Here is the input.
Amino acid sequence: MAGEGQTGGDGSTSVNGVMVDAIDKAFNPPIDPERRNQIASAEQRRFEELGPAAYFQSLAEAQLRQEQQQGIDEFGTGLLQTRFELAEHEANHDHLTGLFNSKGFTAVLEQEAAEMRRREFGKSNSEQEDMPTTWVIAIDVNGLKLKNDTEGHQAGNDLLTTFSQVLTKILRESDIKGRLGGDEFALCLPELSASNLRVLYGRLEQALSEQGMSASFGAAELDPSNLKGSMRLADLRSYRAKKKFYENRENKYLEMDADLEELEEEKRKDDEDKKLKG
Here is the structure.
């Protein structure tokens, strides 16, 4: 699937790993592996020292110099291409967890929807109904604000990192994983029956429980012609699951049945109540 790194759809490839891949693509014939690894390590240190903004600014300046100079050597051209490979990776991935960020997740979700439309083309309605289901999952990690408030933001970051590691460990390579921001994550799970989704959720819930964590999950079938609607439904189902968690303090909440109209009305009433309470 397009957009996947060395480790599959989670997007969790390390910066160093991206550098090595990019160098292999940029230099033809390939350079010595030891030299390649030295370049990758040096570029990773440079990225970490400068930070993303300054590093990407240096890329733009380097490109300008290349355009102004004639006869730049093959090594310089290859290294510049390598740096842009890294820039592209960083633009689509969350710096904390290594998963896709909102931009990257949306882009890969659009690619998955396009592939679904291609597979459905020319098939009858009954044939389309028999095709495997693709799910979008909206997730809220429970307890992040409390963790930040009581133990500090580093503890909160550790919570998010551990959560992303559990996702990577339990889910399939073909599953797309993203952190949309804050405590919000999203998944796209291709070709999975509803019963197998429940089994997969059970494994995730157990793995999170072993880490002293929990999360609220909302699932919706992916409609390739209405990505926003699918994500909205999954998000509202996650919202209901989180309400159940805080009402009952139980971990096991995967909401995948409530309809959109019912959820929209529930959310509207909750928002009104919040306004009245000030």
The CA atoms of residues 22 and 118 lie 30 Å apart. The two ends are 47 Å apart (CA to CA). Confidence is low (pLDDT under 50) at residues 1-13.
